[in-house]
Amino acid sequence: MAAKRGTKTSMKNMERELLCPVCQEMYKQPLVLPCTHNVCQACAREVLGQQGYIGHGGDPSSEPTSPASTPSTRSPRLGRRTLPKPDRLDRLLKSGFGTYPGRKRGALHPQVIMFPCPACQGDVDLGERGLAGLFRNLTLERVVERYRQSVSVGGAILCQLCKPPPLEATKGCTECRATFCNECFKLFHPWGTQKAQHEPTLPTLSFRPKGLMCPDHKEEVTHYCKTCQRLVCQLCRVRRTHGGHKITPVLSAYQALKDKLTKSLTYILGNQDMVQTQICELEETVRHTEVSGQQAKEEVSQLVRGLGAVLEEKRASLLQAIEECQQERLARLGAQIQEHRSLLDGSGLVGYAQEVLKETDQPCFVQAAKQLHNRIARATEALQTFRPAASSSFRHCQLDVGREMKLLTELNFLRVPEAPVIDTQRTFAYDQIFLCWRLPPHSPPAWHYTIEFRRTDVPAQPGPTRWQRREEVRGTSALLENPDTGSVYVLRVRGCNKAGYGEYSEDVHLHTPPAPVLHFFLDGRWGTSRERLAISKDQRAVRSVPGLPLLLAAERLLTGCHLSVDVVLGDVAVTQGRSYWACAVDPASYLVKVGVGLESKLQESFQGAPDVVSPRYDPDSGHDSGAEDATVEASPPFAFLTIGMGKILLGSGASSNAGLTGRDGPAAGCTVPLPPRLGICLDYERGRVSFLDAVSFRGLLECPLDCSGPVCPAFCFIGGGAVQLQEPVGTKPERKVTIGGFAKLD
C-alpha cells in the first residue's frame, strides 16, 4: 500500500512534464518535433494554421474516434477552430504537398515549412511534408494514460456503445477504436466473424497504433539513422536520402539509449543527497539574491538622494551668489539715481549751488564754493559721459550643464572590466618573464589586475587545473621572476573594479630559455678596430662602419687585397655549466658571424688575425696535409653562425670549422630567413653549442666546440653590420612578481 501511494505521489509530481506547451493541458497524440520537443497534434495544426500553412496537419485518419476526441474533452482552443474538410486534407496529403500562400502546385523548389517551437522559442524546419513527416510519441501517450489512471483524471471511462445511461468501460479495441463494456464487447465481436479476432485492451481515451510507422512509406520502422538521428524503415535504408549514413538496427539503438538513460538515472538517484544539497544552496542563493537586491536598491536610492542633496546645496549657493550680485548692483544703481535726482532744478545739489551763488561776501563765497565747484564738476562730467553704474545683464551667471547632463544621462551601473588583451609583441621570456597587456577601448576601468600562470610541461595532477595567482597587480605590465628554464608557461590576466572580477584574457604560451641567461657586455679591449667598430655607451650594441679602408680595398680587389675581419668579444668567459644569451642582428648587415670560441684562441687570432682573401689570393696554410688530417676529428676552437643580407647560412662547414678565417663551405649550405632574435646556448660539459630562433626556440644549428679552456661570446663583422644584445628583463623598471613565492616586491 505504501509503495502504491509512493508511486501515485511520484506520478503526481511529474504532471508538468506531461503538459503541452501550447494548450497547457495534458498531451493528446503528441508529435516529436525535430528539436526533440513535443506538442499536441491538434495544437500543432492550429499553430500552422495561424502561420498561414494549410494542408500540413498530418494524417486525419490518425484522429481518435473515442470520447477523448470530442470538443468537450479536447483543448479549449480546438473548439474555436474551423478545420479543413477531411476529404480536402486527404487529397492534399496524397498529392505529397499542400497549397499555401506563395506556393505554386508542382513548383521545382517547394517552400520549407517552419514551425515556431513554443518550448525552445526557435523556428524548426518541418520539411515539405509538414506535420505529416513527424512521428507520434507513443511512449509519452502511454505515460499520460498511466498518469490519468493513477490520479483518476477525468473519472471513469464509459462505454461508447451502451444506451443511456452508459456503463463503465472494461475493454478497448484498437481495431474498432472504441471502448466497450463486457456486454457490448461480446455483442460487437460475435464468434465466427473477423471482429472476433480483435484483441481487447484496457479502456483508454486515446487509441494508438501498435507500433511506429514510417511517415513517408507507412512501413514499420526497423532501423535508426545515427547521422540524421531519425527512425527509418527498410525502404528508407535503400533511398538516396540516407546514402552513406550510419544506420543501425533499432534494437541496438534501443539498448544503447536505454543503457545510457539507465546509467544517468542511476547516477541521479544515487546522488539524491547531492541534489538536495544543491537545492538548499539554490534556495540560499535565492534568499541572498533577495537581500542583495534590496541592499542594492537602498544603495542606489541613497546615492541618488546624495546627488539630489549635492544639487540642492549647489542650487542654494548659486542662488545666493546671484542674490548678492543683484543687491550690489541695485545699491549702485540706486546711488546713481539719487545723484542724478540731485541735479534737477531746485533740488539737491543744484538748489544748494543756486543758494550759494546768492552769497555776496566774497571771502565766504570762495570758502563755500571751492568744494561745491568740485562736486558740480564731477556731476557735469557724469552727465557728459553717462553710463549706468551696473549692468542689468546676468549672463555671467549662466550655467553650462551639458557635460553634467550627459554624465547624468549616461549614469548607469558599473560594469566589470572586459577581458584584457595581452600584447604579444611586448610580452616575452628571457631571464624573467615580461607580461604586458591592455584593456579594450570601451572597457570600464580596472582598479587592479590578477595574473594567473602555470607550467604546461609538468605531469597533470588529478583534479582541477591549479594556477598560481598574483593579486592586486597595479599597472598594465608585470615581471615574473625566477622562471624554470626550458619550460612552457601559460599566462592569463583579468581585471577587477568595484563591480567585481571580469573575464580572463586569452591564454598566452611562453617558452623560457633552455639554460640560465648569461649577462655580459661588449669588451672593446680585444680585437676592436676603433676605425670600423662603434660600441654603444651601454656596451650592449656594436655597429660596423667600414669607411675608407674597405673602399680602398675594393679598388684593389682585382689585383689582390686583404679584407680584415673585425671582432668584438664579451667581457665574461664561461668555464662550467650551461649558458644562454640572445641578440638581434640588423637584417641589412653584409656579413656577420655570431658565436663563441676559446678565449686563448681568440686572443691569438687578434694578435695576427688572418684576413679574408679575394678570389685571386690564396696564401699557403703553413701546415702539411698530414697535420691537417690529424686534426679532423678534434673539436674546433670556434663555433659561429653566418648571417648576411637577412639570411642565415646553414652548411656543413659552418658546423665543423666555422672559424675566423671564413673558410667554411659557401656552396654546400642552404639559407633560412633571419629571425628577429637569435639565441645561443652553450653546454660547456658536453662541448656543444646550439643556435636557436629566440622567438619560437626552434633549433637552427648545433656545433661541437673545444671547451678545454674558458669560452667567451664573440661577434665578427665583414663590411657593414650591427648587433644588439638582448637586454635583461630585470633591468626594466616594472613591478616584480616572484614565481613560486607570494611576497610582493614593489
From TrEMBL:
GO MF annotations in UniProt: zinc ion binding
Segments of this protein annotated with the region Disordered: 54-86, 607-631
Biased composition (Basic and acidic residues): 617-626
Record field: transmembrane: none
Biased composition (Low complexity): 60-76
Fibronectin type-III domain mapped to chain residues: 416-515
Subcellular localization, as worded in the UniProt entry: Cytoplasm, Cytoskeleton
Record keywords: Coiled coil, Cytoplasm, Cytoskeleton, Metal-binding, Repeat, Zinc, Zinc-finger
Signal peptide: none
Every B box-type domain range: 209-250
UniProt GO cellular component terms: axon cytoplasm; cytoskeleton; main axon
CDD domains per the UniProt record, alphabetical: Bbox1_TRIM46_C-I, Bbox2_TRIM46_C-I, FN3, RING-HC_TRIM46_C-I, SPRY_PRY_TRIM46
Highest rank taxon of the organism: Eukaryota
Alphabetical list of Pfam families matching this protein: COS (PF18568), zf-B_box (PF00643), zf-RING_UBOX (PF13445)
Occurrences of domain B30.2/SPRY (ranges): 500-734
SMART domains for this protein: BBOX, RING
GO biological process: anterograde synaptic vesicle transport; axonogenesis; microtubule bundle formation; neuron migration
PROSITE patterns recorded: B302_SPRY (PS50188), COS (PS51262), FN3 (PS50853), ZF_BBOX (PS50119), ZF_RING_1 (PS00518)
Domain COS: 357-414
Family per similarity comment: Belongs to the TRIM/RBCC family.
Protein's UniProt name: Tripartite motif-containing protein 46 isoform X4
Organism from which the protein derives: Panthera pardus
Phylogenetic placement of the source organism: Eukaryota, Metazoa, Chordata, Craniata, Vertebrata
Gene assigned in the entry: TRIM46
